[in-house]
Amino acid sequence: MGVRVRHAVREDIDVMAEVFAKAFRVGMSEAREVFEVSMDVQPDGCFVAVTDTNSIAGTGCFFIYGPLAWIGNVAVLPQLQRRGIGTSLMKELLREMGCRGVRTVRLDASRYGHGLYLKLGFIDEYRTVTYRITAPPTSGSGDALQVTGEVPEWVFRIDAEAFGADRSMALKALLRRGAALITLGRRGYAIVRGEDVGPVVAEGRDAAEALIAKAYELGARKLIVIERNPEAVGMAKELRWVPEDVCVRMRLGPPCREKVNLIYAALSYAKG
Description:
single chain; alpha+beta; Aminopeptidase; 8 helices; about 35% helix
């Protein structure tokens, strides 16, 4: 079966969402939002793999944060997997980013894609685990908590310090679409979108607990914990949160100057 890879356009979103929903068994509305946000963040960063019959069989996106880029939304129709479609998509994504001067590429690999990424030269960094929040933390540090629609500049600064690159465009895209921003003085922030909370970036566990407790009040029930942050892992275990999914964060290129001790929840598997 012949496959060509091309840039995606907004008119492709419904079909891309269908591919993603079938590959990862999520709802269509959730899958559609994945690509709507992706194109808001990086309008030219999504690609589709098209078969001889001109049907979309696979998807993939990248997001450039300066010298660092993130790959996400890589999906292939279940009945067409293991036919080289994912490899074709990844090679085109990497070629495109190479042309743009990206030095480091990162992603979160599921168990299905891990082998492919190893073959392409990626190396393992650490695990990222999705937990269901079955009980909120308790903390006495919440006096300065605010839920706001306006983003203070210090939020972008502390996020860049933690993540290792400026991803303000991704955070702004989420907030434009109605996500809630929680701040705790200048000690940390969290973003809540539906059942998901992330990023949670905080200077210390007590600040993180206050932010997550408030996020729970707003309906958040899931977050992605970076296992290299022992305080975040300890919180999840002590509160007996339920692990639901595990990925491996991988890297191609030199390491980033991230500060994982500040990260109590990742943004998403697709965007870091």
